[in-house]
What we know:
Helix content is 74%, strand content 0%. It is an all-alpha fold. It starts with 7 loop residues before the first helix and ends in a 13-residue tail after the last helix. Its main location: membrane. Pfam families: MFS_1. Residues 414-444 are annotated as: Disordered.
Amino acid sequence: MLSVLRNPTYRRLFGAQVVALTGTGLATVALSLLAYDLAGANAAAVLGTALAIKMAAYVLLAPLVGALADRVPRRALLVSMDLARAAVVLALPFVTRVWQVYVLILLLQAASAAFTPAFQATIPQVLPDERDYTGALSLARLAYDLESLASPALAAALLTVVPYAWLFTGTAAGFVASALLVRTTALPDVDPAPDLGPEPRPAGGAAPRPRAYARAVSGIRLVLAAPRLRALLALDLAVAAAGAVVLVDTVILVRDTLGRPTGDVPLALGAYGAGSMAVALLLPRVLERGDDRAVMVRAAFVLPAALGLLALGLTATPGAWSWPVLLLVWLVTGAAGSAVLTPGGRVVRGSVRSGDLPAAFAARFSLSHACWLLTYPLAGWLAVTTGPAASAAVLTAVALAGAVGAARLWPPADPATGRRTPAAAAASAAQVPAPEAPASSPTR
């Protein structure tokens, strides 16, 4: 897996991802504590709403940005969005009202909705070999785990010497460092988009739809055309249900339900990250011996099992056992979520042609975050109105529905092997009259 870092371009991009996500992890902890300061016992509702705004920005903007990505120099887009995110984060320590948090989160995530799909679509162009790309996906998963493991640990240490508001400064520094690394990296040229020509003017003289909008919709149609990509969205729902409970309800579970100090909030989030990181390290070897479907679907069923155990435990009177059990449940949830999410890029890459990757990644990014748009506010408002136990129970049912849906949508005889499904091929051919050769992937 680490051999992929021998590629100098990917090494610098991975470094940019690491420093940006380390800063984002600091912001996750700081935002939880800011919400608690502003709203007290209603912190879960505030945090759930803020994260729902984040997901709404992703859902609405990512497909459009993906459709426009090949019209803007890739490096300029990534650098400018990093700098925009740094500027917004520096304003968060100065908020005094809940609505101000919501506005800044919207601006921050609008920039992320432009940055992340463009970054994801760059990696398979830098690493065309499937084995290298699989290693890069595992490394990317490790980088994301810094947000829930290394960053919370760093946050816990910093909180002993500085107020939590200073954590936002660390986030801004991470975005600036990411921008500098990307700015000094030579990125591959983006494949030019085929000229589709102007759309015919409808009868009555109405103006045709903007081409960018049409291309954004075509990316979503491309994702929905392949059975395995529809199953991938069901898997995303299962992960979102479990992840929402972790990210939204942890501060309430630790501070109110268990009555533990502020410093234990990042420790609980760190347990979630530890499980995710451990699985990401093991997955490259596991995927060499098994297919993506088997790994991802089986892990998806672990998620409702872990949430169900949490819901059951919350109905009992808290005791000395409660804290270690919470850490164990978060550890298992992180591990299962990593096993579902990490191979996702392989499934997308093996289902569409190279020229469709930016639109496909943007569409999948948007649709998957629609799942989080549902689960974040659900977890937050249920925790406030009916209690953490009911919140965990409802999200258990959502996670189970996602796992069952994925098992039914993804045919066992059609594992993601890098060959495009007939549905994906037909959808792509229908959208682009002048087809190009599909990306080749060696058989695993």
